[in-house]
Amino acid sequence: MTIRRPLVIALAAAALAGSLSACAPLILGGAAVSALVAVDRRTSGTQIEDETIELKGATRLREALGDRAHINITSYNRQVLLTGEVPSEQAKHQAEQIVTRVENVKGIVNELALLPPSTLGQRSSDALITGQVKASIIDEKNLYVGAFKIVTERGVVYLMGRVTQREADLATQFARNISGVQRVVRIFDIISDEELRRLATISQPSVPLTTRTPAPVTPAAAAPAPAPVPAAQPAPVTTAPVTTTPTPSVTPLPPAR
């Protein structure tokens, strides 16, 4: 598989622009719902909930922690991923508790590190890795980049999405073979092939999932196959534990006198 360099550069630039668009240390994950409804495997209602979770969570974290922390909040199918850096274990726990109380949050993966905020160079490198992972998925005819949400923090790639086991394994293999990746963390919602076909029929009736083919490439224009990667080189893969978020209790107010 050959990843098109202009595509990698464009995706990396978009990812970096998104991470640097605000001066505040809290970065809102995800993309606009209107651009995702047509290709995302979540329902439109769930996408809106995820965007709302990210917005409310980022606002509350900023109000509570201010410039003391650099936190990225990413929600997919109401599972929330927290990445970035905080000054103490107390701040890490506080951030999780704040997001836990946001409406519709189903679970939290707290990957916050007790470190100073990452540098511009580190964030640029992470944006490049994210762009390379996305480009490798786009180049693979059996994967759809819209089914994945990809976050990179200090060389650790987090993969989220509603995917089949085959899709999860293939995307993981692509990510762990990219230069600079230290580790791959999977936070997938695994679905069956039957469920995937049902989703394809509902959300993408005009583009059947099983008939998508890549553009033809003439022999003269084909790039040479990349050199094989040694088995010991790929980054390790882990599955992040999800903290189930209980439904917050509500204490009824006494009747007005």
Can you tell me about this structure?
This protein is of the alpha/beta class. The protein has a domain of 95 residues: 2-Layer Sandwich (Histidine-containing Protein, Chain: A). Strands 1, 2, 3, 4, 5 and 10 form a six-stranded mixed sheet that branches. The chain has a four-stranded mixed sheet with strand order 6-7-8-9. Strand 3, helix 4 and strand 4 form a beta-alpha-beta unit. Helix 3 packs antiparallel against helix 4. About 12% of the residues have low confidence.
What's the topology here?
Elements: H1 5-20, E1 26-28, H2 33-36, H3 44-65, E2 70-76, E3 79-86, H4 89-100, E4 107-110, E5 113-114, H5 120-139, E6 148-153, E7 156-163, H6 165-176, E8 183-190, H7 193-203, E9 237-239, E10 243-244
Parallel strand pairs: 1-2, 3-4, 3-5, 7-8, 8-9
Antiparallel strand pairs: 2-3, 4-10, 6-7
Helix pairs in contact: 1-5, 3-4
Any descriptors?
globular; 4-stranded mixed beta sheet; 6-stranded mixed beta sheet; 10 strands; alpha/beta; Histidine-containing Protein, Chain: A; 257 residues
Q: Find the structural class using helix and strand composition.
A: alpha/beta
Question: Beta-strand level of the residues, as a percent range?
Answer: 15-25%
Number of helices: 7
Order of helices and strands: HEHHEEHEEHEEHEHEE
Q: What's the helical proportion of residues?
A: 25-40%
CATH class of one domain: Alpha Beta
The unreliable regions are: 17-25, 30-38, 205-211, 247-253
In the CATH hierarchy, what is the architecture of one domain at level 2?
2-Layer Sandwich
Structure summarized in a few sentences:
This protein has 257 residues and is α/β, with parallel strands linked by helices.
